[in-house]
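Researcher: Checking consistency across runs. Here is Glycosyl hydrolase family 13 catalytic domain-containing protein again:
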Amino acid sequence: MLRAACDASTHATVLRADAAPATAAAVWLDATRLQWPGTADAGRFRLLHAPAGGIVAAPGQPAQGAESALVLQPAARPLPVDLQLRHRHLADGARLALAPADATPARLQALHRGQLLLVQEDAAGRVLQATGVQAAAALDDLYAPAEALTDLGVTLSRQATRLRLWAPTAQAVHLCLHASDTAPAQPAVPALQRDDATGSWQLQLPGRPPARYARYLVDVWVPGTGLVRQRVTDPYAISLGTDGRHTWIGSLDEPATQPRGWATAPRPAPRPGNTGLAIYELHVRDFSIGDATVPPALRGQYGAFTQADSAGMRHLRALAQAGMTDVHLLPVFDIASVPESGCTTPTVPAAPPDSPAQQAAVMAQAATDCFNWGYDPLHFNAPEGSYASRADDGATRIREFRQMVMSLHAAGLRVGMDVVYNHMSAAGQHPQSVLDRIVPGYYHRLDAQGRITRSTCCDNTATEHRMMRKLMLDSVRLWARQYRIDSFRFDLMGHQPKEAMVALQQLLRQDNGRDIQLIGEGWNFGEVANGARFVQAAQGMLSGTGIATFSDRARDALRGGGVGDGPAAVVARQGWLNGQADGADRSAAMAAADLVRLGLAGTLRGYTFTSHTGAPRRGDQLVYAGQPAGYVDAPGEVVNYVENHDNHTLWDVNAFKLPIDTPAAERARVQLLALATTAFSQGVAYFHAGVEVLRSKSLDGNSYDSGDWFNRLDWTHQTNHFGTGLPPAGDNQALWPLAAPRLADARLRPAPADIAFVRDGFLDLLRIRASSSLFRLTTADAVQQRLVLHDTGPAQNPALIAAELDGRGLPGAGFARLLVLLNTSPADQSLSIDSSRGQPWVLHPVHRSAGAADRRAASAAFYRTAGAFRVPGRTAVVFVVDR
């Protein structure tokens, strides 16, 4: 029977159905106390328990089917402060407690291994109300020792193969063993033994693994479904079979997982902080799928990075030599959305640039094609199989991932991972639900009715719970130790507790003997917003940690508008880069220029300068979308960017916002100016792959599932793929009336010379940034003392921004003084600055070099007698005073 269950075609078998409602409005506060969602002014409360289910609690009738019933009393003791904080999101309700005699560890643990209903009854024992109970806090309390486990998953030694699974609410766990990823289960189906102290189940098999692939049979009560026999993989799996069907039983120390030279491969020097980071955000498949210099079998895979002479790798080496420090890979752990075998590549018809035919062909196969961004995690600890040459061999994906890391390190680039611990791809009884089918209701964050919250787009996880927190920390530590990952970008990090992120930072330093930089999206929204459940790892809440968040302040001031602008706003809401500075609304233009200036100063909370109102203002006294614009206390806590994988690319947003008759060559200049604002701002510099070659997604504002067609990169630098069809209808159709005429307009398509201009100019920007530690100041005091913003206040010219940096006495400054000038106007602009302090200003050596890309920057002038600078239109230029 068990062997047949191992090979069943479905993901689960319901052994006994649950007739009770699935709502769980009551909440365990700790192991012995609960909160009823209402008042306790009538009747009595009982906790009904049945290991195999069968409880019926119909209003107006006595409850039936319970094996035991525990009477609850009002809780006498007030909650400790830590529990008050943990449950601060709960509405007022009656707090109830178990009697001491019912609160023995064994009794409490048994309660959670079956059906539980909390009922309110009248004096005659008839049900008034009934609800399920959210159990996470009780499980955290009862099984606290599990947090110290170091051997979850598979552990191999010469003597034994050991497996351990945390499943505290399970009634039984068995192991299905398979000789290969496609082989039927072996006859023996051994049972795992429960450890009551930790709630984990363990099994030791003698010698080396008897089979290479496995999955568990977990018998567990699922509220709203019943007693279910789940066929699940291991959340701690380090590798998998195809499509995550089976857990791979192996070790990261096995020779088959080690690329040649892995043990001694060099690694770029560690970075002591964040401000030295210049990051290139790259998708594994985008990198090579269209690169004809990569062998066809390696395109879109980890192996493409091993091709040192490919066009893509030559491009990455050029970036590294100029000053790029890190490549950040979009999610590369196991994801749910891409079939790992048999995925398709749509045939896209030749059609006009404004045709809907291309997107129709792409979207017809979106569910089965080989592309997705990958923000839909399935297994956190295993490399994604669709990027490997063999998805069915667990060792191959590990080895090839490590080869990719080795190759990037050899190119002089550190490797970062984009990680997604804030949600899972699925929950409940979905076949791709892993965590929730092992410990139902625990790993996910629930609302007041017991429903999984989905504010992040998908099924939110709850890293405020001990074992979800542990899974995140253990997972990140594994990637850093075993794959030599140098830095991490956290998707929607504001949904994680600050405490967990700080603990992770310390553990990584301890594990690796070096700083492993942590950055993330610190957006403050959803059910956790404004500290509703815990202090978040969000914007404004990470001061002093050294963990950085992405800043939308300068980004939106530069680009104009905001995320999700509709058809009217996407054109009308211009930014500093694309027309606002020369517009009729002078006040709005000056306010935007102030936000750009604050970005140059690291978006610091305390940085003070004269705002456009004429009064001195701290960064946190400037306003962005009703919030303080300045929100960090150190420059290393902010990530500066004008484009990333989300939303329209910069080229595409400017297709909407720049005047339609702006020539492509001038659009290219706007692009380079935007990149200069990132390169010259204090903090982390973050660049989306292809922004330097004018990347377009043919006006697709959300290309997460838009296939290779709308996500392509061209390393021959001949095209940016603008005007290759209307973008997919799902997220873009409302903009089609605006998009179509633009896609058809040849003036908006850059020539190869335009692409080469920005590419080469970007390399110059990186070289300038790398030339001086003045662009990488580490403290707020240093920024305040060394950075002076010129031409501020109500009389300013908002089209020209001037930022002077004092390098005297600063190691690595390279220059006594340095002046950044940014002119967004199409026309030349001039500015007078007192230059009486010694040597005259001269162009930065990169601008003066024979190979300087931007001849307009090289033609910028300083008139010594007048103390004036002339900056050509749409130009970023740096002047210096040599030591």
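Researcher: Does this match what you'd expect to see?
Model: One thing to look at in this run: The first strand starts at residue 12 and ends at 17.
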